[in-house]
Automatic annotation (TrEMBL), chain A:
GO terms for cellular component: nuclear origin of replication recognition complex. It comes from Fukomys damarensis. PROSITE patterns: BAH. Residues 45-171 form the BAH domain. Residues 415-426 have a biased composition (Acidic residues). PANTHER family: CELL DIVISION CONTROL PROTEIN 6-RELATED, ORIGIN RECOGNITION COMPLEX SUBUNIT 1. Residues 399-410 have a biased composition (Basic and acidic residues). This is Origin recognition complex subunit 1. It is found in: Nucleus. Keywords: ATP-binding, DNA replication, DNA-binding, Magnesium, Metal-binding, Nucleotide-binding, Nucleus, Phosphoprotein. Coiled coil: none annotated.
UniProtKB/TrEMBL annotation, chain B:
It comes from Fukomys damarensis. Its main location: nucleus. GO terms for cellular component: cytoplasm; nuclear origin of replication recognition complex. Belongs to the ORC4 family. InterPro entries: AAA+_ATPase (IPR003593), AAA_16 (IPR041664), ORC4 (IPR016527), ORC4_C (IPR032705), P-loop_NTPase (IPR027417). It is found in: Nucleus. Keywords: ATP-binding, DNA replication, DNA-binding, Nucleotide-binding, Nucleus. Residues 59-202 form the AAA+ ATPase domain. This is Origin recognition complex subunit 4. One of its GO terms (biological process) is DNA replication initiation.
């Protein structure tokens, strides 16, 4: 197979042939034909709409094949640009390796497939067109004619829609036949082209330059935009070159010429794969054009900038426009990337349709595809809401039979396709194929820079459309966490509440009950509700998670039918109705407003549907979903009662009598009586939990564990407390043994200290440490309470009492302002409860501590 | 010649003085992490160890620093963070988020602020975001993505923590504590509050997720340490430019701190309040008296400053009143004595005043009623008297019920210092029956 030396591009001049046809709807001009002229060569290549062309891609052995559908001048940008819309064909090697087996036979070398995938970007820049090519349609079982078996001809037998290979529809055949008929006419340019210098005679051209609208540009632009100084350099660098009237193209190629000597890592690997003839070329450049060598020496930055320049000036324009950065990149990217790695909705329309429907659908397909395709590029061109809505109307008009939802989905796909492409690396890789021109993606400073590496083997792993497109994460740490060094550190790690134990001790019964409940519902393919209550820290959520984990394992081994698991937490919602949004998003990936989501969910759960797996929904902190009308709770408990819903709802809250207390009868009746209550852990259970966590780790004395278990069980039975105390105790132990450097056990004394630290009231120490005047004031309060027999007094009363006390003890009595300051200080740390201070003398004061405590604290000294 | 020399040295001196004032004022007014910590070494150790474990080991933690106002909570956390950031492995490895309950008054604003400080907003922009709910789920998702070993730890500092507990449902606190208790991005939540009952403010499930670590700062130092702090706070640092002057200054401070009268002043101040901020206030007032002609602090300066600090503000107001207004206040005092703190109205006060004037007509001018009314209203404007109910338009002003916001002792003290007080009035003040 010949190598299409796409990068040996010479100065090509693209110009329109014929008069422009104004497309009124989109306000841009379309053309029927374009001529490609190679600088320094008299030959011209004419390419007409409807012809098949080769388009620059990642792999220059196998440029992309496409059919021209439309040529137009894109003037949505400050400087108009020549663009084309194409119908893609796909090579067998571009099909995702995991799906290649679907073909079921060995493909022919020249075989390509009609790419029947409406969601892929079909908008390309004219500059990426390499030249025309011939494509012949054959019957699925047709044999490739020997006489045509040269590199210039491709054969289409089947179409590929990312799911399966299908024979070409009759309409498509007719279209191909028409083109075949046209061949004598169309052959002229092609025949010319066969000897045209575009790639064969290119070797004779003196300035044979390796050009590449490479992936590296993406980074370059971002660098560029980030460095104003770099731009300056760039101007210096480019000023040395002669400027032809057609400045744009000359700059482009001159930039490209500079690109070649630059040997980045990626480049070198690339040139290794290309034919040997290329080696001398680059050498030739080095020797023949010393002028070009100098910029090379200016270093990477300079090269980047010059290289950047060839990315047609509008890039800079774009970057300079007042649009927010995010928007800018979006627009520029959409304009320039003929991404075929389209957006695939997570639920691709069902493939196993009824036969007649297939037929109808296939008949419709080309048209629908065109419409869809044009939609997408129109959106890009205008990227305005008006156009969007207009297109939506148009679409509705054209495809009345298509249901609304699909269409909406598609439109939204077109809208956020680019954002979705940028989040995750694999997606970005997939996105990179069919990207003759790339633009900056400076959106995500956190993401790995490896986005820029082009995939060598074009993966066909097309990115699924992810509506929850932008996912952010906290940047990862630069330094690895050290391994726990001592026994105590290890123990601390295991005692952290977040450490997930292999099994949950002491909750076997509850685990079994929940497991049985969910399993039975799964097996029966019905729905149901369960209410789980218990005080905080008794392992409710952990147990349910464990159940789900076990069930998921069981589902993998086909013990239970597969199910979908969704979790929502009342505390993680801003508002009860948001629960619908979250459920819908987790269920289907759709985004909607709360009311719309509620409607969609109701439709989903209440309508009869055919095969569908059960959904298990965990609602944590149920009490926060309470609304005045209780419609959220009502719906949550109502859906499982529908037979077709197959929804199992597990709800968790703290109070046992929640259904009776806050729910209306109709809500609590739907919740049913499947209730479970988690009792607080007893001391032996807590002990067991600790022991199981510290398995094979001798960090605690046995007595110490028992002590903490008993302490916590007496207080709350909260396992979290227990773990926290133990963790604190290890710290205290470590701290006290720091000097001795000997590994030690956590003793009862350490634990007592930790317990005291956490549970002892701070009021008494606060009173003990307060100033003399503050203590005197507290005493005066007590005296005043004693005098009046009430638990409340005004500031004035206390002040006079205070003055009297001071007189008795012969102390100088404080001024009113000082006493007021003391009062507000004690009020601010809530030893006292005071009214707002605007009441001045009349503000009422109460003690927030028991008088006995105050007396005790004051007596100590 | 000698004149110029002295002028020169004066100029030099002046520069020194202004430098001293600047250095010390900065120390008193700003909570710089450079200032020293006093008596909180144990707490400091605890906190720094905790933060280090989060930063280095990725262990999530939550802690509350509790202490009365001016006890050095912010200084403590600032010190700890400064030391933490000086560790090489940590400085690049930790994100910090500062929130203040007085600024982030609801969860929505707090979320915006967190997003901004974590630099997530350029991902967010206004592209996918709009609603609070989306913002919220986005942030939670972001924090959930991480895990102990690979994510960059985040330290959340919540100043005025108690105010966050008043947010709706305590959603923010719940989620922060929940993250700190689950295997997500490692975070350390440090709350600063002056409320001792902070745990009672937390909802039970929020409370359960909080690790119950509390660091108490209680100003637990005694008087000798207080004097030492005073000395240290007023001493000039070693890196002061004029060595000679700073030596002299420090010597002076040293001798000052041993002075008996200064110690008395400090003890009185210490007895009123142990909080270091009030000590700073005292020192600052004293420092203002330092000039070129008076280059060193003296005991008298401090005594005067202490007097200024402990002055009763209302007594000061009373000093500026006219004799008529004083008379009215005395009349009110008598009414209070007679009717046992029951509210009074203008007419009662006026009658009381008239009785006095009729007895002592030779010494006190009998004012017209509108004049007396005006004086009465002036007292109300000064908030020395306060209406019991809200003023309504249609009620007659003469009969509106009022309460006196001055204590008897305050009145008597003020009267003693009142300049040119007629003897009759003074006598009348001591006893309402003096005219008999």
């Amino acid at each position: 197979m010949a190598s299409y030396n796409t990068r040996q591009k010479t100065r090509k001049i693209y110009s329109w042939v014929g008069r422009p046809l104004l497309d009124r709807k989109l306000c841009h001009q379309t053309y029927k034909e374009i001529s490609v002229k190679i600088k320094g060569c008299s030959t011209q290549t004419h390419i007409q709409v409807g012809q098949f062309v080769l388009i620059e891609g990642e792999d220059d052995q196998n440029p992309y094949v496409a059919k021209l559908i439309e040529l137009f001048e894109d003037d949505s940008e400050p400087r108009s640009r020549k663009c084309a819309r194409v119908q893609w064909f796909i090579r067998f090697c571009e099909v995702a390796p995991c799906k290649q087996h679907l073909l079921g036979r060995k493909p022919d070398a020249q075989e390509i497939f009609w790419y029947d995938y409406p969601a892929c970007d079909d908008n390309i820049s004219i500059e990426t067109i390499i030249g025309p090519v011939r494509v012949v349609a054959l019957a699925p079982d047709g044999v490739i004619p020997m006489d045509l078996k040269n590199e210039k001809t491709f054969f289409v037998k089947l179409s590929w829609n990312e799911k399966k290979f299908r024979p070409l529809s009759p309409e498509l055949f007719a279209e191909f036949d028409k083109l075949q008929g046209d061949i004598p006419k169309g052959q002229k340019p092609r025949a010319k082209n066969a000897e045209s210098p575009s790639w064969h005679t290119a070797e004779n051209v003196v300035k044979r330059i390796e050009s590449r609208h490479s992936a590296s540009k993406s980074c370059q632009i971002s660098i560029h935009s980030a460095m104003p100084t770099a731009r300056k350099k760039l101007d210096l660098g480019s000023s040395g070159f002669p400027r032809t009237p057609d400045a744009k193209i000359s700059q482009q190629t001159s930039g490209a010429s500079l690109d070649s000597p630059r040997k980045t890592k990626r480049k070198t690997t690339f040139s290794e794969t290309t034919s040997h003839s290329k080696r001398p070329q680059s050498d030739g450049i080095k020797t023949s054009s010393p002028a070009l060598k100098s910029p090379e020496k200016t270093g990477e930055v300079g090269l980047f900038c010059v290289d950047d320049k060839k990315e047609s000036p509008e890039y800079h324009r774009i970057l300079r426009t007042r649009l927010p950065a995010v928007k800018t990149t979006e627009i520029s990217e959409t304009n320039l990337t003929p991404t075929r790695g389209g957006r695939r909705s997570s639920e691709v329309p069902c493939v196993d349709l009824k036969p007649e429907y297939i037929k109808k659908r296939e008949a419709k397909e080309p048209e629908a595809q065109n419409v869809a395709a044009s939609t997408s590029h129109r959106i890009r061109r205008k990227s305005s809401l008006i156009t969007l809505s207009r297109i939506r109307q148009q679409l509705r008009f054209l495809e009345n039979n298509k249901n609304d939802q699909e269409e909406k989905e598609f439109l939204s796909a077109a809208e956020d396709s680019d954002s979705s492409s940028e989040d995750e690396e694999p997606f970005a890789l997939a996105h990179q194929r069919r990207n003759p021109c790339r633009t900056s993606r400076n959106l995500q400073p956190f993401l790995a820079p490896s986005v820029q590496t082009p995939s060598k083997t074009p993966k066909k792993a097309l990115k699924p459309r992810t509506p929850q497109s932008v996912t952010a994460k906290i940047r990862s740490r630069s330094l690895a966490t050290p391994e726990p060094a001592s026994v105590l550190e290890e123990a601390r790690l295991r005692l952290h509440v977040s450490a997930v134990p292999e099994s949950l001790p002491c909750r076997e019964q509850e685990f079994q009950d929940i497991y049985n409940f969910v399993e039975s519902k799964l097996l029966d393919q019905t729905g149901g509700c369960m209410y789980i209550s218990g005080v905080p820290g008794t392992g409710k959520t952990a147990t349910v998670h464990e159940v789900i984990r076990c069930l998921q394992q069981a589902a993998q081994t086909n013990d239970v039918p597969p199910f979908q698991y969704i979790e929502v937490n009342g505390m993680k919602l801003t508002e009860p109705h948001q629960v619908y949004v979250q459920i819908l998003e987790k269920l289907t990936g759709q985004k909607a407003t709360a009311t719309h989501a509620a409607a969609l969910l109701a439709k989903r759960f209440c309508n009869r549907r055919s095969s569908q797996e059960t959904t298990v929904l965990l609602v944590d902190e149920l009490d926060l979903l309470w609304t005045h009308k209780q419609d959220v709770m009502y719906n949550l408990f109502d859906w499982p009662t529908h037979k077709e819903a197959r929804l199992v709802v597990l709800t968790i809250a703290n109070t046992m009598d929640l259904p009776e207390r806050i729910m209306m009868n109709r809500v609590s009746s739907r919740l049913g009586l499947t209730r479970m209550s988690f009792q607080p852990y007893t001391h032996s259970q807590l002990q067991q939990i600790l022991v199981s966590r510290l398995k094979h780790l001798k960090a605690f004395e046995d007595d110490a564990i028992q002590l903490v278990a008993r302490k916590v069980a007496a207080l709350s039975g909260d396992a979290r407390r227990c773990l926290d105390i133990c963790r604190r105790a290890t710290e205290i132990c470590e701290f006290s043994h720091q000097k001795q450097h000997s590994p030690s056990l956590v003793t009862v004394a350490h634990l007592m200290e930790a317990v005291d630290e956490m549970f002892s009231s701070s009021y008494i120490t606060a009173i003990k440490n307060s100033s003399v005047l503050e203590q005197g004031f507290l005493r005066a309060i007590l005296a005043e309470f004693h005098r009046s027999g009430l638990e409340e007094a005004t500031f004035q009363q206390i002040y006079s009492q205070h003055v009297a006390l001071c007189r008795m003890e012969g102390l100088p009595y404080p001024t009113m302002s000082e006493t007021m300051a003391v009062c507000s200080r004690l009020g601010s740390c809530r030893l006292l409860l005071v009214e707002p201070s605007r009441n001045d003398l009349l503000l009422r004061v109460r003690l927030n501590v028991s008088p006995d405590d105050v007396l005790y604290a004051l007596k100590e000294e | 010649m000698s004149n110029r020399k002295s002028k020169n040295s004066n100029l030099l001196h002046g520069e020194c003085i202004s430098q001293v004032q600047r250095t010390l004022r900065e120390r008193f007014c700003h909570q710089t992490p450079h200032s020293n910590l006093f008596g909180v070494q144990v707490q400091y150790k605890h906190l720094i160890e905790l933060l280090k474990r989060t930063a280095l080991h990725g262990e999530s933690n939550s802690v509350l620093i509790v202490g009365p106002r001016g006890s050095g909570k912010t200084t403590l956390i600032n010190h700890s963070l400064k030391e933490l950031m000086e560790i090489e492995e940590v400085s690049e490895n930790v994100l910090q988020v500062y929130l203040n309950g007085l600024l982030q008054i609801n969860d929505k604003i707090a979320l915006k602020e967190i997003t901004r400080q974590l630099h997530l907003e350029n991902v967010v922009g206004d592209k996918v975001f709009g609603s609070f709910a989306e913002n919220f789920s986005f942030l939670l998702e972001a924090l959930k993505k991480g895990d102990r070993t690979s994510s960059c730890p985040v330290i959340f500092i919540l100043d005025e923590f108690d105010l966050f507990a008043h947010h709706k449902n305590q959603t923010l606190l719940y989620n922060l504590f929940d993250i700190s208790q689950s295997a997500q991005t490692p975070i350390a939540v440090v709350g600063l509050t002056c409320r001792l009952d902070i745990l009672e403010l937390l909802e039970k499930r929020v409370k359960s997720r909080f690790s119950h670590r509390q660091i108490h700062l209680m100003n637990s130092f005694g008087f000798p340490q207080y004097v030492k702090i005073f000395k240290e706070q007023l001493s000039l640092p070693v890196e002061f430019s004029d060595k000679l002057f700073s030596e002299k200054w420090n010597e002076n401070i040293q001798s000052l701190s041993e002075d008996k009268s200064v110690q008395d002043v400090l003890l009185k101040h210490f007895n009123v309040s142990k909080d270091l901020r009030s000590l700073h206030m005292l020192s600052m007032v004293a420092l203002n008296r330092v000039t070129v002609s008076h280059p060193f602090l003296t005991a008298a300066d401090l005594m005067e400053a202490a007097q200024l600090c402990s002055m009763d503000s209302k007594a000061n107001v009373v000093h500026g009143l006219s004799v008529l207004e004083i008379c009215l206040i005395i009349a009110m005092k008598h009414l209070n004595d007679i009717y046992e703190e029951e509210p009074f109205n203008f007419q009662m006060v006026y009658n009381e005043f008239q009785k006095f004037v009729q007895r002592k007509a030779h010494s006190v001018y009998n004012f017209e009623k509108p004049v007396v009314m005006k004086a009465f209203e002036h007292l109300q404007q000064l908030e020395l008297i306060k209406p019991v109910e809200r003023t309504s338009v249609n009620s007659q002003r003469e009969y509106q019920l009022m309460k006196l916001l001055l204590d008897n002792t305050q009145i008597m003290n003020a009267l003693q210092k009142y300049p040119n007080c007629p003897t009759d009035v003074r006598q009348w003040a001591t006893s309402s029956l003096s005219w008999l």
